Amino acid sequence: MHRFRIPVTLAIVMLVGTALCSSAAMAQFNEPPPPAAYALQGVTLVRPDGSRTENVTVVVRRGFIEAIGTDVEIPPDAELLEGDSLLVYPGLVDAQGGAKVEFPDPEIDRQSLEPWNAPREAQGFLPQRRAADHLAVTGADLKSQRTNGVVAGAVHPDGPVMPGLGAFLIYRQDADRSSELVVQPAIGPTFTFRGARGVYPGTLFGVVAFYRQSFEDARHDGLVREAHAQDPRGVKLPGWDPAYEVLRSVMAQEQPVYFSASTAEDIRLVLELADEYQFRPVIVGGEQAWRMAAQLRERRIPVLVSLDFPDPERWKPAAETPESADTAEVAAPQVPEPLDAAAEREKRNLENLYANAGRLAAAGVQFALTSGGGEADILEGTRKAIEYGLSEEQALTATTVTPAALFAASYLMLVEAGVPATFIVTDGPLFHEDTKIAYTFVEGALERGRVSSAPEGGPPSVDVTGTWEVEIEAEGQAMSGTMTLEQEGAEFSGSLSLEMGTLQIRDGAVGGDNLTFTLVIEMGGQSMSAEAKGKVEGDEASGTGSGEMGSFTWKATKAVTPREGEVR
Question: Which residues have CB under 8 Å from 458's CB, separation 6+?
Fold first, then answer.
């Protein structure tokens, strides 16, 4: 089988050089072409409903799944990716994602501003403004989200009152322009109870009154237009108002309203406004949605549950009692000290946040788990929700099927022959703590992650902490440098310093005298990685590596640390 790559040493020189050369100079370097096809062999396919098929082969070619099944042959021109013992899932969809939006600052003279008669830009009355027109990201900017398994997401405008229309994006790797990410440019307006700064409406009471007045004005504007269309005599046609047009469309239930609301009181107020003006709300955030679960279920109102949990400050969750390394006996649990009133309140509030999703699921409310605007790790937050009552099956639905359906993108859940290859590959069950994303495919483009497979050999018998002199060789090219490592238990991390720059060493693991680690190069907005493994023998170590940079061998000698008072 063919493997398309560039030598690791050349990759290092190219990437480090970006920090020193102008973009014009770097334009002369071209990325190597991708292989004609990719193949995964021996994977377990996990479908959105949780059903599984083992020993599956997947072939991806020209952006599509060419073949998938238990009896598929690997084409000779395909690059064979590691697949044995890995699992294939539909990709995660972040219903409140973090793609950057940059709206222009309004030109407002606040010195002469009349707070009771402010322009719409100051009030935040901009429901017609589209986030899709002001995206400030490309496919390269979404790399970290793809490596965390997120293949698509919705972006909702941020700001007071009615900041604009959200958009749904697919996180294409090769999107050089923001517009190439957009699947739906207008999924519905975002409403909030946040007041405007220094002008009306600035309070919750004022914002609610402003909503009612705006809906009534939009309704009246529509009635005048209808009357003019029937008989223009005596009726003057008003000018076109794009904000009123959006409000009429939501009153006609042509698109939903993504209403940011956290407390039960705010959610209750959303439902009252929705009943009064007949719009379809989707609750965004919903920290106390569990308190309104019966009403939300009855009205079939979805909730985009934020996993952006605050860190505990006063309450310190008790650590699990460690297992004895010698006897495998569990130490007797210690009675925790009683919490003061503030810590007890914080504990109760946080546990209600963690249990929110599980309670909504038990009540039959439709919900999606989100990063809360790109602030939280979806997988980490989902694990916390599972710890507090959500099942793994419900979690899979809430991070894949439900958000995809909300944005009419259920096709993203298909992992079958003939469809665009959009899925993720993990090294263990998706929501387990030690599981990592090995590969993410978005419409056939591969994003490599980091596999967490630990080396064989049992407990560590060596300590790699210290400084090592390293030599790397790849396809006749050689490079030397200094590697600094720090080991704690069976894990280690560090850096590799070369003449032109420093590379990061991550996800290091030791088993017996064997070790594995990930070598990461990130410079000039570009990133490459390679998985390395090796064996330690005394003060020497050696091994091999491969990845986006190609294949290479390495060897290292540990530097001797001078004794106290000794001069070398």
Answer: 511, 512
In sequence order, the β-bridge partners of residue 531 are 518, 546
Query: Nearest CA to 131 among 91, 88, 190?
Result: 190
Judge if 123 and 207 occupy the same domain.
Answer: yes
Cα(500)–Cα(258) distance, rounded to whole angstroms? 49
Percent of the chain with pLDDT over 70: 86
Determine the pLDDT at residue 506.
Answer: 82
- Edge-first strand order for the sheet with 367-370 is 92-94, 150-155, 164-170, 182-191, 257-261, 281-285, 303-306, 367-370
What are the start-end ranges of the H helices in 364-469?
Answer: 378-387, 392-396, 402-406
Which range (48-57, 91-100, 447-456, 528-537) has the least confidence? 447-456
For residue 502, what are the CA distances in angstroms to 423, 462, 497, 498, 521?
A: 33, 25, 4, 6, 8
What sign does the CA torsion over 140, 145, 151, 152 have? negative
- For 211, the domain range is 115-316+341-413
Locate all alpha helices (DSSP H) within 113-240, ordered by sequence: 120-123, 143-147, 204-230
- Tell whether 76 and 43 lie within a shared domain: yes
Q: Is the model's pLDDT at 337 over the cut of 60?
A: yes
Mind listing the pLDDT tens digit for each residue in 361-371?
999 999 999 99
Q: Does 351 share its domain with 488? A: no
How many domains is the chain built from?
Answer: 3
Interatomic CA distance for residues 450 and 338, integer angstroms: 42
Residues 398 and 486 in one domain: no
pTM equals 0.77
Distance, CA of 162 to CA of 158 (rounded, Å)? 9
**Residue 387 covered by a domain:** yes
